[in-house]
Amino acid sequence: MAFKFDAHESLLKGILRVTRERIDRVIASLDEKPQPSAESIHEARKDLKSLRAVLRLARGSILGEVRRRENIFFRDAGRALSVARDRQALLEALEYFSKRRHRHQRAPTPSQESIHRFIEKIGGKIGQEMVDELPRDTLRQLLEELRGAKRRVGLWFDGVLLQPTNEWATFVGTGLRRTYRQGRNLVWQFEMIGPKNASDETWHELRKCAKALGYQLRLLRPIWPGPINVLLAEIDQLTDRLGDDHDLAVLRGRILNEPYNPSETQESADTRQVLLQSLDRRKRKLQSDSLQLARRIYVEKPSQFERRLAAYWQAWHMKPHVKRTRNSKTAEGADGRTSHGGQERQRAA
Question: 248-271 pLDDT, tens per residue?
Fold first, then answer.
């Protein structure tokens, strides 16, 4: 099924279903023969990020120790795949930047040809580094651990006591409000210190917060598709721009750290400087556009944002044709049975 809640299931069952389906997708992507492609690795990393977003959404109903353990597992799994994907992202950034420069040039000059040669040189090294970046033993172990994670999913909510009146707050409201607040706090930080003074790490953190919010809203899209789709479109624009900004930041660091060659001519040194200046101009434009989008996305107070989505959910939930099966005092176990007991946990916003 799609990455969204279904009208005929409770939020609890929806979270369990979506999580297991996402893990299956990761396993399928990484189990390609003879070896997963760069695109499959990219898809697996996105699915792992979506799993972490689900954990953040359901934080009001999962014990902190369990949530931290699973979050660390999915985070480390993504990092194990990041080396190969980051190399691919660098190549894509180089290709984009090279094509963009070519579009704005009528006839190549000697300095432009030098820049082109420098880009080809960096690209060749990155391409070589991608060879055998993901050993088969690493993949095999990761696949085994992912199958174990899927078996653990049913235990995430073991002992949860759910009352009919707090389903939204328990499984969605607390986590959604916190995810939105984290992004909004970063926008406030940019406003206070000025976007030019923000580090690349802070911009990347905003992208991660917006990505998590986007995944969570995709789960909730069926409750009111129109308004949520509008917001998702802006979030996608924001994360795309910040993703390009991050790739250029990594590329900039790679160019700066390119080993010094004593035989490097002044022309080569100048070429490096021109390329860095061009990268910086592009980054400033991306960051300016990103901040404008972020201001619109995070214009509401977190409590207002969460209450608005709760109202959408309540209207969707109360539709006459929506028939849902619920059990107010049990949580589904790993084998599909229910586990009883535990205390209702109220978490602070």
Answer: 888 888 777 766 555 555 656 677
